[in-house]
Amino acid sequence: MTKSAIQIRELTKSFGGGRSLFGKERHEVKAVKSVSLDLMRGETLAVVGESGSGKSTLARMLVGLETPTSGSMLIGGKDADVLRREGPQAFGKTIQYVFQDPVASLNPRKTISSILETPLKLLCGYEAPRRRERMKELLDAVQMPESTLSRYPHEFSGGQAQRIAIARALAAEAEILVFDEPVSALDVGVQAQVLLLLSDLKTRFDLSYLFISHDLAVVEAICDRVAVMYFGEIVELAPAARLFADPEHAYTRRLVASAPRIRRE
Ligand SMILES: Nc1ncnc2c1ncn2[C@@H]1O[C@H](COP(=O)(O)OP(=O)(O)OP(=O)(O)O)[C@@H](O)[C@H]1O
């Protein structure tokens, strides 16, 4: 078995280009430029960079929400195209995505029970009694009470909703989780609790995390390695401690310097 949970090679994504319906030339944006990156099994790898650097586009390609222009991805040791052809079940059981806005990511018309039931039924194939048992286990894992099940997303705070979204991602029993700014919509105190929960879940369930963030304080708290993206390229990749203590690339130095809470507290 490969040691990489995710292996990305020369991945590129361009938006626009070509001509519009009326023949006007469309501006091409290269959001991700020939990125190669490995997420090792059991690690938390951060992808950091300012707004527009291509972090979300990279994450969205990994989970099949964007199609790469070129390059390749192995996810859980399998080519992403092969995995996708095997169907949503195979894909969803390999990699899961947690969005930035937890409330928006949960269907407002469904109870939490119904939200958690979908992956348990469609991805794991559990029968009703086992599904009910798993729902309780999942809520317990994210420290939410059983009474959560009969309620609707809008009844929860941002932090609680993110715990539910994490429970939904865990329901698929995928070993690779991609988080796109999972705590940036939350208050700082709540952020710390959710980050602690994520660390705990990773060890407990043997997970691998790809963690997209623009917040270096968050990244330093949770990540093993950090990849720095700048205009669609990875300009530096290093263990978190090394990167924060001794950033090599000029852009990384600027990023670290502009996050004084980390350096000077
Ligand atoms: N669907 C799209 N169509 C056209 N351009 C896009 C699309 N999605 C992203 N882009 C462009 O690609 C570039 C990278 O965007 P992306 O959202 O990946 O960056 P980011 O680092 O995640 O930023 P943010 O933190 O603000 O989400 C930006 O210039 C953006 O405008």
From TrEMBL:
Record has Zinc-finger as a keyword: no
Keywords, ordered alphabetically: ATP-binding, Nucleotide-binding, Transport
Top-rank taxon, per record: Bacteria
Keyword Transport annotated: yes
Domain ABC transporter intervals: 6-256
A GO MF term: ATP binding
InterPro entries assigned: AAA+_ATPase (IPR003593), ABC_transp_ATP-bind (IPR050319), ABC_transporter-like_ATP-bd (IPR003439), ABC_transporter-like_CS (IPR017871), P-loop_NTPase (IPR027417)
Family classification: Belongs to the ABC transporter superfamily.
PANTHER family registered for this protein in UniProt: D,D-DIPEPTIDE TRANSPORT ATP-BINDING PROTEIN DDPF-RELATED, TRANSPORT ATP-BINDING PROTEIN
Name of this chain's protein: ABC transporter ATP-binding protein
Native species: Rhizobium rosettiformans
